[in-house]
Task: inverse folding
């Protein structure tokens, strides 16, 4: 008695090759079965939520006056070729708060109208955000 299987009639036929579509490379075929990232961007959102920002400190009138004096001293030091260190608050673009940044350099220009200090390396520091000036 001869045993027949469901595909005996086609098992030995040649493999079909499309004349219209080119053969897909093995690497591309494997990519079809890579995991699907249903939560694209979720990881980034979690990292953003966990990113810590600082609150901006409020300066009283005495501190503001002292900063004004230190700014004038820093201007004089710059004319003598000496550097000063500026610390200022940079608001975060995505969430409340921000970070304090420090930069050491010489003042190139103080623009009173724009209320900005420009250092020689072209760093622009908003005067209203300055929290500290170490003018030596």
Result:
């Amino acid at each position: 008695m001869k045993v027949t299987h469901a595909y005996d009639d086609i098992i030995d036929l040649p493999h079909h090759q499309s004349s219209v579509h080119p053969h897909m490379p093995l690497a591309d075929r494997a990519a079809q079965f890579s995991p699907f990232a249903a939560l694209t961007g979720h990881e980034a959102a979690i990292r953003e939520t966990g990113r810590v920002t600082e609150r901006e400190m409020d300066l009283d009138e005495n501190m503001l006056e002292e900063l004004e004096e230190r700014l004038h001293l820093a201007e004089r030091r710059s004319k003598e070729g000496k550097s000063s260190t500026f610390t200022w608050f940079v608001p975060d673009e995505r969430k409340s708060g921000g970070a304090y940044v420090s930069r050491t350099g010489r003042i190139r220009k103080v623009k009173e109208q724009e209320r900005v200090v420009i250092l020689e390396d072209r760093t622009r520091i908003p005067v209203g955000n300055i929290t500290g000036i170490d003018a030596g």
